Amino acid sequence: MRSWAAETARVHLASLPRRWEHTRGVVRRAEKVSGAVDDPDLLVAAAWLHDVGYAPHLVRTDFHPVDGAEFLAKQGVSVRLCALVAHHSCACIEARNRGLAIEWADERTALRDALWWADMTTTPTGDITDVCDRIEEVLERYGLDHVVARSVTEASEELLGAATRTERLIADRTHV
After folding, report:
1. Nearest Cα to 50, choosing from 83, 97, 1, 4?
2. What region does 35 belong to: left with phi over 0, alpha with psi -120 to 50, or beta?
3. Are 131 and 161 in contact (CB under 8 A)?
4. How many angstroms separate the CA atoms of 77 and 7, rounded?
């Protein structure tokens, strides 16, 4: 699954250099924590595919988590992978703010938290950051009145919670 996900992401995102670098950085972060979740391959696959909905030819709703999940569903991937992509980084809040529904359930597991952590601790250029700095970067990039900035602000407590839980998982694994 990892190799298919990596190739699919490359095909659809390599023409978007900044998005591709971010995706590769998210994968590196996901690999760091993959041994602490129930399905390491699924986590890494979700990291590869979390932003596939940004590919211009896949845009339908203009909201990349939903567009990516819909594309993946048409490819016949698991419902769980579609849900992880659809809900990455608390996308349900932005979906609601855009008047969109997400048809997949948010699983609220350590794996889901790890994907959110990987995304929210990776800069747009693929470097490592912390969640607070990443949230600040999003607010600066979009401006406080933009739906993305408003949604990230509203989601910040959930994002910080997922990051805290994931960092505990990492710490617990290093102390074993």
Report:
1. 83
2. alpha
3. no
4. 14
SS3 state at 160: helix
Alpha helices in 40-146 (DSSP H): 40-49, 64-74, 79-87, 91-97, 110-120, 131-142
CB neighbours of residue 80 within 10 Å: 17
pLDDT of res. 175: 62
List all residues 6 or more positions away from 172 whose beta carbon is below 8 Å from its beta carbon.
36
Q: Is 128 helix (H, G, I), strand (E, B) or coil?
A: strand
Domain annotation for the chain: domains and CATH numbers: 2-174 (1.10.3210)
Output the pTM of the full model: 0.96
Two tokens, residue 34: 């993959």
Residue type, 119: D
> Does residue 172 have a pLDDT over 90?
no
Q: Which position has the token pair 């999940």? A: 69
